[in-house]
Inverse folding.
């Protein structure tokens, strides 16, 4: 028990640069208190003391602002950072080493009792502020959920989900989707990734393709014009696009180049 408590405190010191001492973490971190209060609540729930478990979680919610259903399973070294307004549903499972920020909901979309209604987070998952993960699916190990994303389908290991509804940025060679200079992955606060939104990538691809086609058409008309002059005739229409006017650079900036 004491080794687990030390592990809880150490994970806060490692992931929050604002944490200055063990005493500060023990006395001033509601996310840590929520985890510690959840354990007896979960024990009561799994040993037939349903009301006592629910009442304990209610007291924890009142003290910390974090609502964790006593039926939820929370692994080791889980860090609720700030975490005001977090809601964790009854059948949710949070794997070891996960980090969850304020305003997160691990919710369900089904009303059937006794079924798996809430998500399962793998190991070392980061769920950023305001994200909603809704449904009884799995978020793979090392995945990241972007701020305010609404995730309604499984997320592969190492991938990043962003947007509403969430779109998946796939991992690279089984590693995180983040672009890092160091070979060894580091913890990324709020699940920040340097990769672009997949929708922005698709839009830029279309813009670049359209610009390339316009360039080729202009070259063709210029070639036809040259041949026409050599034949001492003019078969080029007056409205032929001999020059390029497609503003690819401006459009790329609008979609977030």
């Amino acid at each position: 028990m004491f080794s687990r408590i030390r592990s809880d405190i150490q994970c806060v010191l490692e992931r929050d640069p604002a944490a200055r001492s063990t005493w500060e973490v023990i006395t001033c971190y509601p996310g840590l208190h929520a985890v510690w209060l959840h354990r007896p609540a979960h024990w009561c729930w799994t040993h037939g003391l349903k009301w006592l478990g629910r009442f304990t979680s209610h007291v924890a919610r009142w003290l910390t602002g974090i609502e964790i259903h006593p039926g939820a399973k929370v692994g080791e070294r889980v860090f609720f950072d700030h975490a005001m307004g977090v809601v964790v549903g009854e059948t949710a499972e949070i794997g070891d080493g996960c980090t969850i920020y304020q305003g997160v909901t691990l919710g369900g979309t089904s009303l059937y009792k006794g079924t798996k209604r809430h998500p399962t987070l793998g190991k070392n998952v980061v769920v950023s502020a305001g994200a909603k993960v809704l449904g009884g699916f799995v978020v793979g190990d090392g995945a990241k959920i972007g701020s305010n994303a609404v995730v309604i389908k499984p997320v592969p290991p190492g991938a990043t989900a962003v947007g509403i509804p969430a779109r998946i940025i796939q991992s690279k060679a089984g590693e995180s989707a983040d672009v890092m200079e160091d070979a060894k992955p580091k913890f990324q606060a709020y699940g920040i990734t340097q990769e672009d939104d997949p929708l922005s990538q698709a839009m830029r691809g279309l813009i670049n393709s359209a610009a390339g086609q316009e360039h080729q058409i202009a070259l063709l008309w210029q070639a036809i014009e040259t041949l026409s002059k050599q034949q001492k005739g003019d078969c080029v229409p007056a409205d032929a696009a001999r020059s390029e006017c497609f503003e690819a650079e401006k459009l790329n900036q609008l979609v977030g180049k």
